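Hi support team,

I've been running sequence recovery on a batch of backbones for a student project. Most finish fine, but this one hangs at about 90% for roughly twenty minutes before it completes. I'm not sure whether the input is malformed or the queue is just slow. I've pasted the structure tokens below so you can try to reproduce it. Let me know if you need the job ID as well.

Thanks,
M.K.
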């Protein structure tokens, strides 16, 4: 006769064992579902953030009004008319960006969906930060005063008949400043910083 194999009884009733296994499977499916939902939510948030960032970088730029008593001067007209239609930023050609109305006089901006705005203003008042002990930087023969505010930098040409300002994100490099220095140096005569 054949051998009879006896199975040990674990002592756990079969229905309880089935429920425990089913609960384990449900728990695993639930954790996986939460993970997928979390990934989807994070992915969607990243997409919405990118869309909001692109919207902020396009359309008319609202340029805050600042005192610019020399904005209508012939010197500012010479500088503003010579500014390029596109600005080289990190190897990319960035187009001019329209300004929201009412737009400040003698103000031009560049920017697109991939680049934060870069602005040039002419004829502004002397900055309070400009003192006889200010650290100035010479770029292509033009003396510039750097003013950092938040994540942006403003550079002011301080040795010309009118003050010219370049404002840009601090991380864009010096390319736009070098280009503007050549333009300002060619259009406006040098004069003492403190006449």
């Amino acid at each position: 006769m054949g051998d009879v194999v006896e199975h040990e009884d674990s002592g756990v009733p079969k229905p309880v064992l089935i429920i425990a296994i089913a609960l384990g499977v449900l728990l695993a499916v639930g954790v996986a579902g939460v993970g997928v939902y979390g990934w989807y939510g994070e992915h969607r948030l990243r997409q919405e953030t990118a869309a909001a960032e692109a919207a902020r970088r396009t359309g008319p730029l609202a340029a805050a009004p600042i005192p610019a008593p020399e904005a209508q001067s012939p010197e500012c007209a010479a500088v503003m008319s010579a500014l390029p239609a596109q600005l080289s930023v990190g190897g990319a050609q960035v187009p001019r960006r329209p300004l929201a109305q009412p737009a400040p006089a003698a103000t031009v901006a560049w920017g697109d969906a991939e680049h934060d705005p870069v602005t040039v203003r002419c004829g502004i008042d002397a900055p309070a930060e400009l003192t006889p002990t200010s650290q100035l930087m010479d770029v292509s023969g033009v003396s510039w005063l750097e003013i950092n505010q938040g994540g942006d930098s403003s550079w002011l040409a301080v040795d010309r008949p009118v003050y010219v300002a370049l404002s840009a994100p601090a991380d864009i490099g010096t390319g736009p400043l070098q280009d503007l220095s050549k333009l300002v140096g060619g259009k406006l005569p040098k004069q003492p910083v403190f006449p």
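--
Follow-up from support: It reproduced on our side and the slowdown came from queue contention, not your input. The mean pLDDT is 85. No action needed from you.
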